[in-house]
Amino acid sequence: VEASIPEPQRAAWSRNQIQSFTDKDGFEKEVVRHVETTLARSMFNCDESAAYSATSLAFRDRLIKDWNKTQQRQTYRDTKRVYYLSLEFLMGRALDNAMLNVGLKDAAKGGLADLGFRIEDIIGQEHDAALGNGGLGRLAACFLDSLASLNYPAWGYGLRYRYGIFKQEIIDGYQVEVPDYWLDFNPWEFPRHDVTVDIQFFGHVSKTTKDDGKTAAIWEGGEIVQAVAYDVPIPGYDTPTTNNLRLWSSKASGGEFDFQKFNNGDYESSVAEQQRAETISAVLYPNDNLERGKELRLKQQYFWVAASLYDIVRRFKKSKRGWNEFADQVAIQLNDTHPTLAIVELQRILLDIEGLEWDVAWDIVTKTFGYTNHTVLPEALEKWPVGLVQYLLPRHLQIIYDINLYFLQTVEKAFPKDRDMLTRVSIIEESQPKMVRMAHLAIVGSHKVNGVAELHSDLIKTTIFKDFVEVYGPDKFTNVTNGITPRRWLHQANPRLSELIASKCGGNGFLKDLTQLNRLEAHAKDAAFRREWAEIKYANKVRLAKHIKNVTGVTVNPAALFDVQVKRIHEYKRQQLNIFGVIHRYLTLKGMSVEERKKQLPRVSVFGGKAAPGYWMAKQIIHLINAVGSVINKDEEIGDLLKVIFLEDYNVSKAEMICPASDLSEHISTAGTEASGTSNMKFVLNGGLIIGTCDGANIEITREIGESNIFLFGNLAEDVEDLRHAHNYGSHSIDSDLEKVFGTIESGTFGTPHDFSAMIAAVRHHGDYYLVSDDFHSYMETHRLVDESYRNQDEWVSKCITSVARMGFFSSDRCINEYADGIWNVEPLVVQE
Ligand code: Z16
């Protein structure tokens, strides 16, 4: 079809494209047009929802043009492309981002005002795209923003879940999960019913002899599920580059119904089959840092990986290059081990379908892939039973065994007679049942492996992947410290602060070169600047206070210190340490005279975050926070001095409101457990200080902003092992202040003590694995320092300004450039306008 349209005709068409709007009046016309035609409504009953739809469609039209041109440019120039494979993309809302990146938010604001709307209300209509759990998924979203903003030819590949992460409701203090049906109306995706891939499952492998006498494997039988592409445009900031995020949706192959069955009167089973196929992309697994080994999850992984690789190979083949150029044209990054089957799938394609020799194929494969590890927690490392892989993907299991065989042969040569080494590094764990270790497969099949913060990258080299450092040498392992996009997390989330910063940094250049923030440093001692700064923080706190009032009914004082911990609920992140600390603070206040109390600093402790539905202990923690809040918040003796808020359904759009409103945020994981953390960066960038442990990226944040601008406490990663050992085999005495907290809980102050006994027992009787008791004293001492420091507002605000000035390193742009240089070997595609 494409070829049949003569070139001059095509060129004429593209010259004559309808021009999209460039100002307020043009925007209004487009909104009216979309309301009246696309939405088939009248302007007389255009409500906020219709105004959101029409505004989105107007901006979408603009994006489509840049998007098409970007794809044309990338095809024409045919330089190396990056493919970011991630099971999660936690995108949040798209409209505000599109308006800012395209640079026409003011036009839209004015136009909407003319039509009788406030732009914030219209933006607020959008449902978050929440196809991720937490840090890993949001990192992928920040990376897409940076890749486009820096003009890299890049694609994201993921799954189009019908249900993203569940919505959290809090009922009687407990988490209740509600399905997140988000696809009702989504103007940001484009179904590509012409871009489909048939994906095979099950079946068996037979051998055949080819013309040249060699044998080849044939995978046949089983069942076919169809993958359909849905494309989402990813606009770069202040550049015409608009990249593509391709999400795969599953459906039964062979159309709507199996007509054979249908005609035979077996209507029900033909519909059932269709539903079974659609199940593959139905739901995001809601676990953060935990793998549960479910068959459907493995199906999701292969479905997505096979469709993506087919697409990538198809695109490569269009260029008519030889296979020896594949790795010069294609870089594929594995976001955690979830897409590791891509390694096996590419080897299968090259070997079985393209007929390359094993060694030639394997060389291409290892040059193509890079693997990012995001955790050292053993419960999060993926392993699949050999039997399950055999049943679902028989040919892939053979290839995995061959990869392992050749790998172990090279290890054997380098470490003769070291059976233990072979057992430890093997891709197959010789357990009952045998397991495929996905991290080992990912390491063996990639040319680079990276961790996500310095401490984490050191830890993987000395603990979980130690043997692989011996096998491959240290150069295969590297660090790329995480970053965040300053567009969403400063400019969009905190427009007033962004504007104030721009006024001192010579304009908006810092949004593309975050190191320019250092120009702020000179103003930290400027009293007038500090006043403006503090006024913006206060206004952001007022906004959060209103939200808190709306959703919880609790009145909080915006002049209080806002102390925030929002992230997934997990024992290693230690929300229990925080809430025990809050109880201790409450007891201290209760023990004071009225006079003494008057001298205390008012605080609001804000919590938010989801517990995995099957994570019982995390749910107990949520319950305790709510139980404590409901007692303290109505204690009239305490009043404004302490409030405890649990904000339900923490997500990206709520983070955009919460980060700018925090004075202090908590990043208090047991040292050595949080690979990086990224909200720590968001909070500091928005002018808040951190209380935290020496863990993940906190360490590098400290190095950048200076020790005097962060409140660090607690034991170090290097001491954790000994402490745990002492808990289990020596004497384990619990901190006396913490015992008082336990006593209060056990006395029934916060409701039935039995509800919380497991949380207490975890510390007292089950080895206190997360070192809550060991760190409690230093945690409370450090909170006292926070109070003291906050009293001196001039000094506090200068600390905040100085910190922001030194945050340049934590842009995801820096991070993406490091991947591009050190791992992908790709260059930006310069746009000539
Ligand atoms: C996840 O969000 C992370 C790790 C992981 O193995 C699985 C999931 Cl779903 C997080 C890390 O916990 C966090 O420290 C890190 O900042 C983030 O990934 C991005 O690297």
Shape: globular
Broad structural category: alpha/beta
Q: Count up the helices.
A: 34
Distinct bound molecules: (1S)-1,5-anhydro-1-(3-chloro-2,5-dihydroxyphenyl)-D-glucitol
Radius of gyration: 28 Å
Mean pLDDT: 96
Total strand segments: 24
Residue stretches low in confidence (pLDDT < 50, at least 5 long) are none
Distance from N terminus to C terminus (CA atoms, Å) equals 29 Å
Task: Give the strand line-up of the largest sheet.
Answer: 7-10-11-4-1-12-13-17-18
Oligomer kind = single chain
Helix content: 40-55%
Tell me about the largest β-sheet.
Answer: 9 strands, mixed
Beta-sheet strand percentage? 15-25%
List the defining traits of the structure above.
833 residues; alpha/beta; 9-stranded mixed β-sheet; 6-stranded parallel β-sheet; 48% helix; 15% strand; globular; binds (1S)-1,5-anhydro-1-(3-chloro-2,5-dihydroxyphenyl)-D-glucitol
